[in-house]
Design goal:
Helix content: 40-55%
Domain UspA: 1-113, 211-276
Distance between the termini: 20 Å
Family: Belongs to the universal stress protein A family.
Protein name: Universal stress protein
Pfam families: Usp
InterPro entries: Universal_stress_UspA (IPR006015), UspA (IPR006016)
């Protein structure tokens, strides 16, 4: 069961979706939800002989503080009827907002952020926030697309392979998987001979382990042929009306993902339902 959920806001169009998702999960888990509004203070002028902060610089910082406080007040008004949900304002100071969020996530079971699925380009600030939470804090991260709405249909897809990242993602997701009716462990094969081979790592023992947690799971294999694994997974999610995807984050290096692509970046860009990542 989850006890502490962190929602660092990035001042994006998906912040509202992340808050709605976090409130739903917090209510179902009886967990505390901390919504973090960050004050990203402008740096002082560099290279001036006088070290005393200029009035214009101090005024700019005060304006940032007021804007953040006003945004936090509006959020508090919207979520006032939800117990256990708080809104905090933190100043980044010498840290970047992403570094601040990672430090605050040390005391969270799960981080939830708004995504940018469907936009022409990934949001650099959003990617930095996601990477900091995943790598610097080592927390599982749920990325919620901008137009997410709660659904009555209840199905989760786990993109499974025999890697530590996939294993961490699966076990991090257990509190969320306990809330859905159906869990599908999907192993994507590149060639038909893999489909015909042994059951691999999606074994009966893994299904049995999930069953001990009260999770009804089944396993399947899908043939990718010449398609990207992310496309196959997303198509299967649409076909099964899945409401959550669970995958390991960055099975390849971040540089490789940025230059030639990979499951993580492709899901960040293309998933229209929440995705839980762990590394």
């Amino acid at each position: 069961m989850l006890k502490d959920i962190l929602v660092p806001l990035s001042d994006s169009s998906a912040d509202d979706a992340a808050i709605r998702f976090a409130v739903e999960i917090g209510r179902s888990q009886d967990a505390r939800v901390r919504i973090i509004e960050t004050v990203d203070l402008p740096p002082p002028a560099i290279g001036t002989a006088d070290p005393t902060p200029r009035a214009s610089f101090l005024a700019a910082q005060d304006a940032c503080r007021r804007e953040a406080s006003e945004r936090a007040s509006r959020i508090r008004a919207r979520i006032a009827e939800h117990p256990g949900v708080s809104v905090e304002v933190h100043e980044a100071g010498i840290e970047s907002p992403a570094e601040l969020a990672a430090r605050l996530a040390f005391s969270a079971d799960l981080a939830i952020v708004g995504g940018w699925s469907g936009f022409a380009k990934a949001d650099p600030a959003g990617v930095a926030l996601f990477n900091a939470l995943l790598f610097d804090a080592g927390r599982p991260v749920v990325v919620v697309p901008p137009h997410w709405r709660a659904s009555d249909h209840s199905c989760a897809i786990v993109g499974w392979k025999d890697t530590p990242n996939a294993c961490r993602a699966l076990h991090s997701a257990i509190p969320l998987l306990q809330q859905v009716q159906t869990v599908l462990l999907v192993e994507i094969c590149s060639h038909s001979d893999e489909m015909e081979g042994a059951a691999g790592t999606v074994t009966a023992s893994l299904i049995e382990h999930l069953r001990s947690w009260g999770i009804a799971a089944s396993a399947t294999r899908l043939l990718a042929r010449h398609r990207r694994s992310s496309e196959v997974l997303l198509d299967h999610a649409r076909a099964t009306k899945a409401t959550l995807i669970v995958v390991g984050g960055y099975g390849h290096s971040r540089l490789r993902e940025r230059t030639i692509g990979g499951m993580t970046m492709e899901l960040l860009q293309g998933a229209t339902i929440p995705v839980l990542y762990a590394h």
